[in-house]
Amino acid sequence: MPLFINPFRKADVSDFEGVYTPLADYRRRSSANDRSDIKSGELAGEKKLDVSPAPSNGYSAYTIDALRAEIEVESVASGHDTAYDRKSIVINKAITDIGMGRYQWSLFALCGFGWLADNMWLQGVALTLPALTQEFGPSETQVRYTTCALFIGLCLGASFWGVASDIIGRRLAFNMTLFIAGVFGLAVGGGPNWIGTCGLYAALGVGVGGNVRILVASLASE
Questions:
Q1: pLDDT tens digits for 184-209?
Q2: CB-based contacts of 80, cutoff 8 Å, min separation 6
């Protein structure tokens, strides 16, 4: 394992073992929705389909022709043969075939740190309000604008990093937002005055808000 990892290096699909498999080489799981027991002669309109039953080991070759045949079987058997229904069948099969492997669990755990940072700082800013009043002297009404500063940063971060992640890539944007949240989170403890602390909280919100935006998109798409 290299001692230094370049965060600006463009990732390639070959860097992630087990994530990408050529379609011709893939072996997929048979799902409960597979209707291999339906004979082609029983379909409405007597459509003749070459659908071979799945092997006894529960796996079948995943080819374009086999996928088209399975979609045809399921759409006709369900009685709803529209473009939307066919797309839904394809998506359901894709999710079933992808499963929940090591890559998905690793991404799930990684994204958890983003949600941890988001919820931690929303609670943390509320806990620091009494200390800010004692340290810098703002009234109980004024000190509440500290929370407003954090939420302004959250809105700006979510707006900016959502677009930026599509340009520079989600991995780099994810790491940068966590870095921003960590740096300014530590800097908040040394704020020079109340206005400066509000500015640090706003900068912190830019990192946290952008991170949440990225991790939601990453977890939903993978």
A1: 999 998 888 999 999 999 999 999 99
A2: none
